Amino acid sequence: MIPTVMPTYARADLAFERGEGAYLYATDGRRFLDFAAGVAVNALGHCHPHMVAALKAQADKLWHCSNLYRVPGQEKVSRRLVDNSFADTVFFCNSGAEAMEGVIKTCRKYHYETGNPQRTRILTAIDAFHGRTLATIAAGGQAKHLKGFAPMVEGFDRVVYGDIAALKAAITPDTAAILIEPIQGEGGIRPASLDYLRAARALADEAGILLAMDEVQSGMGRTGKLFAHQWAGIAPDVMGTAKGLGGGFPVGAILATEKAAVGMVAGTHGSTFGGNPLAMAVADAVLDVMLAEGFMEHVQAMSARLWAGLEDVARRHPGVFSELRGAGLMLGLKCVPPAAEVGAKLRDNGLLTVGAGDNVVRILPPLVVGPAEIDEALSILHRSCGELAA
Fold first, then answer.
1. 260 assigned to some structural domain
2. What is the extent of the structural domain holding 369?
3. What's the structural domain count of the chain?
4. How many whole angstroms separate alpha carbon 150 and alpha carbon 27?
5. In this predicted model, what pLDDT tens digit does every residue of 277-300 receive, in sequence order?
6. Distance CA 219, CA 203 (A)
7. 2 lies in some domain
8. Domain-terminating residue out of 256, 290, 324
9. With contact defined as beta carbons under 8 Å apart, do 243 and 43 qualify?
10. Which of 245, 226, 269, 222 is nearest to 108 (CA)?
């Protein structure tokens, strides 16, 4: 008999009742160090007091009022995002997949409005992941996500990730945009080189097409800057983000330049719940913390500490881990045994991680993580590797 909760997840037999900072507490009383962070969602950890206060205060005022009216919270949060990014305008939604659907629509509508309606195809990367909707699984193109959902949405051409020559060769008169994850998350924590991102920007300009970024996972401080592409000193034309933007509350956003958003006018796109007052109160609180002086420097310092520690883990346990990848606090360890087996052992020892493609275990601590929690995680990793080897 099918469960009342549709069985679309391979769930661990574990349930949590509360969280605090970098820790989760299970219903059976066990404490876990959370280095999965809700798959890079709980950027400020669990129950951050500033977020909790903002949500409670807004809950006493207004939850939902529809996008038929002005929403002051949207105006405030969009201004803060615009002031701290390449964008001129922002659309709010509820998830990363919705954000990326909107990115795809924005790219196509731009060319329709500017006299090139044949430009509908988007270049994506092999092993990319852009969401679970019909269009975004087609954009990612991974067989395991597409199986059983034919016919596939048309309009995507895939090239090898990081190969600028292949990217250049794939541009045709029908190409509308290049879509890149600065760091492939589900694909195995594979960062693009900064030179690749710069070259993609130059190629898009040369071809008269848009450069789109998927920063659903890599954005919102995860690499030590608000958005990962900022390390390359370039700007996309349109970008989707989510996850850390709400710190655990469902918030997604499409950020775009005025040029790219030329066709996104009344009636072209919408969301019933997107950008409601509750979501905006929380996103504003997240930005209060992330944009505060010293926050990104803290992320960078903790990133360096964690990277050095994970390098040591991989060096001392080559029979368990063969490679360390990633940037900032978006890191991955390529496993020798099955990644699921490694993740289960870490969980048994009190450390939560999350799997990724290419047999990788993702390490995604909250951005507020401190030295003590990093050292605790490294201790669990060393112990778990010894147990796996034995």
1. yes
2. 16-34+295-389
3. 2
4. 40
5. 999 999 999 999 999 999 999 999
6. 23
7. no
8. 290
9. yes
10. 269
